[in-house]
């Protein structure tokens, strides 16, 4: 598997018996506070992010859990909003979900940790409060060289095939495939990476201990073993439609680029792609049949400035380092393509269905009789023409080659 990630620490799936390097000496109280806030604030809550930035995690949590949190306590929050947040805070036991994730062998990663992917900071106040993670590999290291592959849940066979092939090719080239573990394109992308022995990250819209969709129980279990499962919501929390949409901003920010394989005009995958554009990440699309509604959203994305790709090599050329170029695309080289221009001109002067004299060939080629004769003997030795009673004619091989050229044109 040339260029593939290896288990020896030089890339790819790290040895599952060796956990990632631990964080530095963070304040445990800050970790407890942030983990508790993930139970109170919804993902992507920009006002909550502003309060967190201004008050600090411990200050915000203490305020939300105190009787002092009334009208006007939180800038920009209505009384109804404050009441709702306080109701949530009343049911929170700080540290309880931390104990739950540790019992699962997982962890809570927060800003300031060595494992925190700093590209998530591009989301500003909408960045995650923290991330719940299952899997032994280092999220920050993996995210540095990652690509999102997303698309329709109800994808076609073409969409599933392209997703799996792209993911396999990316994994073989040492890239981490990030997706949302949904049915369709997401699942095919994860399976493609896993099949190549590569690295994949599933970003969930629920707790990392909740299997959703239930039909992906075995897939998510494999991702935990071979890759990483990540989420903003604490263990036990369930997905909702809005959480899926908000989850997509994490996928967009975490990766160098987002590849959309199939998507209708109204698709969560397009939300991911457009957020990637806003963040300055590469937005990439795989074209499909123009008659397919499942490709209509991708084609609109391409019209809006996304880059068209057809395979993993082209994706890597976009997101990779200098020199990681896709191979040049060329059609087949025909034998007559190797002829010098004057010999080719004499060959093209011979009609397909009859023989001609050397003089007629010379006139049609715009050259002298002597030049034409020399070229005809050269072409004869190469198998393009043959002598006959009437003069010179094309061989069946030359006729087939001529038909092939016309077909390509």
Number of domains: 3
Strand content: 5-15%
Major beta-sheet overview: 9 strands, mixed
CATH architecture of the largest domain: 3-Layer(aba) Sandwich
Structural class: alpha/beta
Q: Which term fits the overall shape?
A: elongated
CATH topology of the largest domain: Rossmann fold
CATH C-level of the largest domain: Alpha Beta
Mean pLDDT equals 88
Instruction: For the record, give the distance between the C-alpha atoms at the N and C termini, rounded to a whole number.
Output: 37 Å
Q: How large is the count of helical segments?
A: 17
Features:
two-stranded antiparallel sheet; Arc Repressor Mutant, subunit A; 11 strands; Rossmann fold; nine-stranded mixed sheet; 17 helices; single chain; alpha/beta; 3 domains; 409 residues
SSE diagram, text form:
Elements: H1 28-37, H2 46-55, H3 57-64, H4 79-90, H5 96-103, E1 107-109, E2 131-134, H6 139-143, E3 146-150, H7 157-172, E4 176-179, H8 185-195, E5 200-204, H9 217-226, E6 228-231, H10 241-254, E7 257-260, H11 268-278, E8 282-285, H12 293-303, E9 307-308, H13 312-319, H14 341-349, H15 358-365, H16 369-381, E10 385-388, E11 391-394, H17 396-408
Helix pairs in contact: 1-3, 2-3, 7-8, 7-13, 8-9, 10-11, 14-15, 14-16, 15-16
Question: Could you characterize what this model shows?
Answer:
The chain is 43% helix and 11% strand. It has 409 residues and is of the alpha/beta class. The protein has 3 domains: 28-94; 130-319, Rossmann fold, CATH 3.40.50; 335-408, Winged helix-like DNA-binding domain superfamily/Winged helix DNA-binding domain (Arc Repressor Mutant, subunit A, Orthogonal Bundle), CATH 1.10.10.10. The strands form 2 sheets. A 9-stranded mixed sheet has the order 1-2-6-5-4-3-7-8-9, sandwiched between helices. The longest helix is centred in the middle third of the chain and has 16 residues, at 157-172. Mean pLDDT is 88; it is low at 1-26.
